[in-house]
């Protein structure tokens, strides 16, 4: 009974009001609290941007110092959490582990779970932001059989993450500033993207009054799929599969992507909202060139294949007609690989980066008051029938 709008995939349904992020997909515009992403990527850093997303304005110097101090001082996780990791197989996908341990945080931090109190919401936001790099690096260390590294609060957010990933207790570790800058930029470019599948999942879970740690673990699960956050891993797998740089070989893969009988798609291409260049992809491509040049590492063959693939696709009628352009993840994997990060950690890094976006949306929703999210359906099943007696 009643009248419903039928909108599978939410192509034309606004599920909420929000003041955080604006996207104009036709013109390739992305603004966070009004500031263009390319300006933020150039002049800001992830912590300042995190403050902006969460609070609505850029911080004053003092507000920045305070926020940064709190994030640095919440990086450690409860010692019991290490045991939690040990329940997983060593070869489990790090995203599977991440879903579990991030959700488990609510069992450790129940002192602040009264979400109606803004101070509690802020502490939870800071805890999540601060602890995600610790959990992410623990996923990696567990996977390769090395000891977990405690965070170092004298380091910046990106430096500390690289330290916990690549440091070990036996020798001093020096953070490469080029790598830290690139890492911070990757965090910024993934920080928020309005009502995407994972953010909508966080909001829907949060609309029931569930605690923020549980909501974020729902978001991590939604992000995992290859149509969403899993795309960065899928791009690298695709570039590896293409392998050979020859023109005919690359063309063959573009042709496969156009063939409707072939499930192959160009990963890192296309977007629900952007019908133009993803502005994040432009910054990512520049960063990719800079990082590979400065570090002198990375598999340049993959970069060459990616660039040629992009060129061929952008000149092809199929991609032009459908307005399919490279998205944020077309180049991010190449940078992450150059930084020494294994492919199965790519989506974990996306989850870490998106945590500030998720928690900012959750906070906005709870602050403004929310009605439980409860979509309706068009029922297509049987009419009433009798159980065979
Ligand atoms: N390769 C080949 N064809 C494509 C691609 C692609 N990557 N993306 C879309 N198309 C075609 C699609 O087959 C359809 O063609 P037709 O009209 O003939 O049926 C048309 O373009 C429209 O595509 P759609 O699937 O209806 O678009 P959507 O808005 O439902 O899906 C998408 C968007 C991102 C899931 C999709 O473009 C895709 O699968 N891309 C590859 C995966 C990817 O890179 N995802 C990362 C998104 S950005 C990071 C993030 O925010 O998570």
UniProtKB/TrEMBL annotation:
GO biological process, one term: tricarboxylic acid cycle
Keyword check for Acyltransferase: yes
Catalytic activity: oxaloacetate + acetyl-CoA + H2O = citrate + CoA + H(+)
Keyword Acyltransferase assigned: yes
Keywords: Acyltransferase, Transferase, Tricarboxylic acid cycle
Active site (catalytic residues): 271, 329
Pathway linked to the protein: Carbohydrate metabolism; tricarboxylic acid cycle; isocitrate from oxaloacetate: step 1/2
GO cellular component, one term: cytoplasm
Pfam families (alphabetical): Citrate_synt
UniProt record similarity statement: Belongs to the citrate synthase family.
The name this protein goes by in its record: Citrate synthase
Natural source organism: Larsenimonas rhizosphaerae
Gene from which the chain derives: gltA
């Amino acid at each position: 009974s009643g009248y419903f709008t039928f909108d599978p995939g939410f192509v034309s349904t606004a599920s909420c009001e929000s003041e955080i992020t604006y996207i104009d997909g036709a013109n390739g515009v992305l603004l966070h609290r009004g500031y263009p992403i390319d300006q933020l990527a150039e002049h800001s850093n992830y912590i300042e941007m995190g403050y902006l997303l969460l609070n609505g304005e850029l911080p004053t110097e003092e507000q920045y110092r305070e926020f940064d101090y709190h994030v640095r001082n919440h990086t450690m996780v409860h010692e019991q959490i290490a045991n939690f990791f040990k329940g997983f197989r060593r070869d489990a996908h790090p995203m599977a582990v991440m879903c579990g341990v991030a959700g488990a945080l609510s069992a450790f931090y129940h002192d602040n779970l009264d979400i109606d109190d803004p101070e509690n919401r802020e502490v939870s936001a800071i805890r999540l932001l601060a602890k995600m790099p610790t959990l992410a690096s623990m996923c990696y260390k567990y996977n390769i059989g090395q000891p977990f590294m405690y965070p170092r609060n004298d380091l910046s957010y990106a430096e500390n993450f690289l330290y916990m990933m690549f440091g070990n207790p036996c020798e001093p570790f020096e953070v490469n500033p080029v790598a830290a800058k690139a890492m911070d930029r990757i965090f910024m470019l993934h920080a928020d993207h309005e009502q995407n599948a994972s953010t909508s999942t966080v909001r829907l879970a949060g609309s029931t009054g569930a605690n923020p740690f549980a909501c974020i673990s729902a978001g991590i699960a939604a992000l995992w799929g290859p149509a969403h956050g899993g795309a960065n891993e899928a791009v690298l797998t695709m570039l590896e599969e293409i392998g050979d740089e020859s023109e005919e070989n690359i063309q063959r893969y573009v042709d496969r992507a156009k063939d409707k009988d072939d499930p192959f798609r160009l990963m890192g291409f296309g977007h629900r909202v952007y019908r133009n260049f993803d502005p994040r992809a432009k910054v990512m491509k520049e960063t990719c060139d800079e990082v590979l040049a400065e570090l002198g590492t990375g598999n340049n063959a993959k970069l060459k294949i990616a660039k040629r693939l992009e060129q061929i696709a952008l000149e092809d009628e199929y991609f032009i007609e459908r307005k399919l352009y490279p998205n944020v993840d077309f180049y991010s994997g190449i940078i992450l690989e150059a930084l020494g990060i294994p492919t199965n950690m790519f989506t974990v890094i996306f989850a870490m980066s998106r945590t500030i976006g998720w928690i900012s949306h959750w906070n906005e929703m709870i602050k403004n008051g929310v009605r439980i999210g409860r979509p309706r359906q068009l029922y297509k099943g049987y009419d009433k029938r009798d159980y065979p007696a």
